[in-house]
Amino acid sequence: MPRISPELHLTLRLPETDAPLRHRIAESILDEIRVGRLRPGDPLPSTRALAEHLTVARASVVDAYDELCSSGYANARAGSGTRIAPGADVAARAHVASHTTTRSSERASSAAPEKPAAVWDLTPGHPDPALISTVDWRRAWRSAAAAAVTSDVPGPDAHPELRRSLAEHLRRTRGIVARPDELVIVPGVGAALRTLVAAAGLGGRDVVFEEPGYSRARTVLDGSGVRTRCVTVDGDGLDPALLRATDAAAYCTPAHQYPMGARMPVGRRAGLVADAAAAGTVIIEDDYDGEFRYDVSALPALRSIDRGPECVAYVGTASKILTPSIRVAWVIAPPALRPGLVRALDASGEACCAITALALAHFIDSGALSRHLARASRTYSARRAAFVAALQQQLSAVDTDGVGLAGIEAGLHVVLTLPGSVDDVAVSAELRDHGVTVPSLADYRTTPGGPRGLVCGYARLPESQARGAAEAIGRVVRRHLG
Q1: CA–CA distance, 69 with 475 (Å, rounded to integer)
Q2: Burial environment of residue 397 by CB neighbours within 10 A (0 to 12, 13 to 18, 19 or more)
Q3: Span(s) in the chain for CATH 3.40.640.10
Q4: Between the CA of residue 122 and those of 67, 146, 260, 439, 473, what are the distances in Å?
């Protein structure tokens, strides 16, 4: 049955400028949104119909629609055409451009920089859920909803389908060989850490923690009664030579140290595992975004290294690869900790929703997760390249020691390092007033003499907006550098 395109009721007037035709078409549609003739949810004409109406090549209309979709003004769905996205009216009235141009950037540079129309949320640790295929997502949830309702109480041995799916996924993507019965499904990384503390009897004992490090994990460990001993990381992450015989455990993020972004080299990984196995130290490996890396080869997870299964408790999560709304994490603990892990979960009652776990299992088994990771990696790589290039252009005019970019090879964020004399808290606050939400390293350090900088997440930053965000950051940073 042929698809029927929405009837054309628009009377578009293309701006008489020297801008490329695709930009002028997109701008004319934004004008219709701005004045209310197009509203969120309204369908756009087919590309063929609009091309005939404007007497232009259809390819130019296709490019204009792609521009509107990539900038968040429209959503395209197979079989449903292209529709105006939620929030497009607010953005259009704020004159947020669907693309960047030399002329618009010149206006931004000459205007007073108090409050730009655009708002960029560069909070790290958040993937872009818009990259998830809605077809695959809905199919997975329909399959889960069609399963028989059971009376089983979720516990350490629950979710067999997801444990089987994850065991195969981790073997293929992270080189970790584990039986399904070795995996324990928990509702988030916080639950994983609380359970490991109880299972290993870490309460009241020293646990090494990266400095600066993931503040939420540190809060969970502190709240569980451990004595976190912060150890400063270097350009290669956590140095195993700094561990002491009195350390009962060590928490680390070797794939992409959070937040500084270091990738622990293989020699240091092997040394850390060997020393921990010999000393009986538990290594908690938080592999929060190990799937994402760019222009570099994958490094082995600590759990996959020789003697790793003896001492490494591997923690993974769906929150960083799909969406934070999926509160699902998994733990593969050393065999000696498995009984304590089971007892701790039985005692706490912390458990995942069975329907959510089953839907995630279907999502993995259907190949949807592999397709998503491939698609997301390409998108994040392009967004990273655009944002890093834009930041480097802003920094090219800065001749100050201590200013640079770190952690650009992997993950979903980069760190803009600043000299120790700069108040990065003040920089972050001023950026917030100028429309950029980005945390400073103060949110992750525990000592006043720690590194200074901004932790910039780019996963949700469209390529078309990278230059604008970088320019806003550059203006504020240069002002603080004097």
Answers
A1: 29
A2: exposed
A3: 134-366
A4: 21, 38, 15, 8, 11
pTM over 0.70: yes
The pLDDT of residue 387: 96
Residue ranges, comma separated, of all CATH 1.10.10.10 domains in the chain are 21-99
Q: Is 61 left (phi over 0), alpha (psi -120 to 50) or beta?
A: alpha
Query: Which tokens go with 435?
Result: 């429309």
For 371-481, CATH number?
3.90.1150.10
pLDDT tens profile 405-443: 998 888 899 999 999 999 999 999 999 999 999 999 999
Q: Are strands 227-232 and 413-418 parallel, antiparallel or unpaired?
A: unpaired
CATH class of segment(s) 21-99 = mainly alpha
pLDDT at 5: 44
- Residues 415/212, Cβ–Cβ less than 8 Å: no
Domain 134-366 of CATH type 3.40.640.10: yes
Tokens of 399: 């001749």
Integer Cα distance of 329 and 335 in angstroms? 19
Q: Which pLDDT band, with edges at 50, 70 and 90, does 312 fall under?
A: very high
Could you tell me where in the chain the CATH 3.90.1150.10 domains are found? Answer: 371-481
Report the DSSP pairing between strands 312-317 and 329-332.
antiparallel
